[in-house]
Amino acid sequence: MAIVTRTLYSVAEANEVLPLARSIVRDIVDEFRTLRTVGRERRTLEVQAGTDGAHEERLAELGGEVARQSERIESYLQELASLGLEVRDLELGLVDFPTIVEGEPAYLSWRLGEEQVAFWHPADRGFTDRVPLPAAPVGARR
Questions:
Q1: Does the pTM of the predicted model rise above 0.90?
Q2: Residues 6 or more apart whose Cβ sits within 8 Å of residue 49
């Protein structure tokens, strides 16, 4: 599995970008939480409405809100992508920073709530396979 990006991060570089990434990820998690709440209300009303047309006005409002929330989330995701970061989980606020470990593609892994970037995993593995730093030498190549 190849990393499709030009930005590769060292641990120090990832931690330098972290304050900005943290702010954006916090917004994503908040927006995603709201989106899920609105989506649940919308589905509940759709079931209740059935074919009688009840709740049409509220359903239209919720549809607009879903669209707005989705646009905001997409904007935040694009902002992180412009930094070369990859969001892995919108609910957890899980982000990967592409890197190279022992000559192989890998990711520095960070989750909202963690103080700094302190984990990594091979590119062909995920969050559950994170290993604490400095379990392997990590360096950036640009």
A1: no
A2: 55, 56, 59
Look at residue 9 and tell me whether its pLDDT is greater than 70: yes
User: Do 123 and 3 form a contact (C-beta atoms < 8 A)?
Assistant: yes
* Chain segment 66-79, per-residue pLDDT in tens: 999 999 999 999 99
Which DSSP letter does residue 128 get?
G
- Give Cα 68 to chain centroid, integer Å: 18
CA distances from 106 to 37, 102, 115, 142 (A): 34, 9, 21, 14
> What are the residues whose beta carbons fall under 8 Å from the beta carbon of 17, sequence distance 6 or more?
9, 83, 85, 97
What is each CA distance from 135 to 1, 15, 77, 99, in whole angstroms? 21, 17, 29, 14
Please say if the pLDDT value at position 111 is more than 50. yes
**β-bridge partners, 99:** 106
